[in-house]
Amino acid sequence: MTSGAWVSLFSGGKDSSWALYQALKRDLPVERLVTVHPEGDSYMYHVPATELASLAAESIGIPLVDVHPDDFGAEDVPDASVQGDEELQPLEAALEQLASEIEGGIAGLTAGAVESEYQTSRIEAMADRLEADLFAPLWQREPVTLAEEMLDAGFEITIIQVAAAGLDESWLGRTLDADALADLKALNDEYGVHVLGEGGEFETLVTDAPHMARPLELEYTTEWDGTRGSLTITDARLGE
Q1: Hey, which of 156, 165, 217, 231 has its CA 20 to 30 A from 59?
Q2: What phi and psi, each to the nearest 5 degrees, are found at residue 63?
């Protein structure tokens, strides 16, 4: 394994949080979290509530680097492959700068990819260009087993956005617990809903976990248009 520090690609959602947690359990020297804040729809990144990643990072105790690229609106780049490559450029530039600042450079990256070959192939290629290892512990794992492992580990996961048939307004703000997982398995059978929300069917925020010193406490309103919706966070703080 390369010398240097590890960097965790981090949104605050369950998948990137689990990848970070697994890296820390393996004593990988994660010294920075990096959060990309897309300004529009994104093929590459988790979009909602990324502004809360800094609060989560404070609870975790690892410094966070924010990346604010240009607008990623899909209408600007009609070809998804081209857009994915263009979306990666600001992140790669930020990582190159970070590598020059960290003693020993970047040894590796953690990523929360589960099934998206589209995302993973680009992150793998970027890691190769950075001469860094890639740790992707969720990659191609069985979704229900993975969800159960997160819950067994003590992850507190809040659903903050839904956009799939079968997921109605009642899911907004719902905790992803054993009951919710059972309901998701039923929705998978009926509608094909992915139990981990792959492809943006739902998005999450980890509000507490074993590697967090203090939980996130949220106040919010819900926005629902009849087929999809999200939370609007009105206040967020670290609890005791």
Answers
A1: 231
A2: -60, 145
